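ZP: hey, is the zinc ion complex queued? I don't see it on the tracker
AM: it wasn't, my bad. submitting now with these inputs:
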Amino acid sequence: MTTKEKADLIKASLTMREILGMYGLTGNNRHNRIPCPIHDGKDRNFSFTEFGFKCFVCGAEGGLVHFVELYRGLSFEAALEEINGHFRLWGGYPELESAESSRNQHKKDSAFRSRRAIAKLRHDRRTAERKKEKDEKRRMTLLEELWRLDANKIKYAPESEDEPFHPLYVEACHQLEYQKYLVESIV
Ligand SMILES: [Zn+2]
């Protein structure tokens, strides 16, 4: 696995609370505010969400892996491994392969966690692809409409001053600017 894949897997499968839990930092806190473990503060200035944290005193902020980097003084790669050492999201632990029953449950939990995370990554990717396809279709529909209006504006333009306006010419004059705006807004 690449570093990025590992980081994505962590983001997809863990929450900030679980990361703080690795170091016994959340206790039974229900308001997502604790004394800052980074600058070792006394008041509850460290606020966290599912995805990250921010300290209003020392200004430390970031995502799950960055917290471990700061709190443990590790490099990004070392922080990924530290998290994996706890949650076992990917392989590289030969002792797990030959594990006895006491470890089997942990192994199953870990396999389940990984499968769930990978399924989520795939789902997110498919959703993004589908959105792209949909945007592309919409863009084509808007472009075709723009071309139709543009062509009508020329085709049905009055040839003399006293000729009554053709309804398609009127429509084109009314709609063309808005249609251009729609096309530009989606590109
Ligand atoms: Zn702080």
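AM: back. The chain is about 65% helix and 5% strand.
ZP: great, adding it to the tracker
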